[in-house]
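Section 5.1 Outputs to date
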Amino acid sequence: MNINAVTVFCGSKPGNDLAYVTAAENLGTMLGQNGITLVYGGGNKGIMGALANSCLGAGGKVTGIIPKLLLEWEAQHEGLTELIVTESMHARKLLLYEKCDVAVILPGGMGTLDELFEMLTWNNLKIHNKKVFIINVNGYYDALIQLLDTMDAQGFMYESWSTRLIECKSLNQLKDAFSLTIE
């Protein structure tokens, strides 16, 4: 798989389990060490900030994309390779999709789920065909995966969700899917 840029959707808060921040830091380091550009929401707090800081610390390039209305809310990162400020959330999401080869989902809240489902919907509608990986840190997304299974079993899916969303239980599984090495 030829990957030059990865968009990561994740929380602007750290969550209650240190493993979430650790997973973000390890992912950022992996991307930076492998010369893969990180594209993300542009924040400097929570999982977002840990992800960007670790990628930058590993010598990586980081592009943040943030809408004007979230500049204060998410405390935009001032040390990025590139920060793009958009007029709207819709413009932000479009750029997040356009600038990546694949997407990775880490733990997050409603915004993360919004971005995940929009990307999956666009994928389903053939607007794009980019792989979407979910890192299920300590079972964070177990209930979501159960819901997707229920939606499929009840006949609301056109194809199995697993053809569009690849669950990884660890960063090593993601690394294997990307065919990368972790130092």
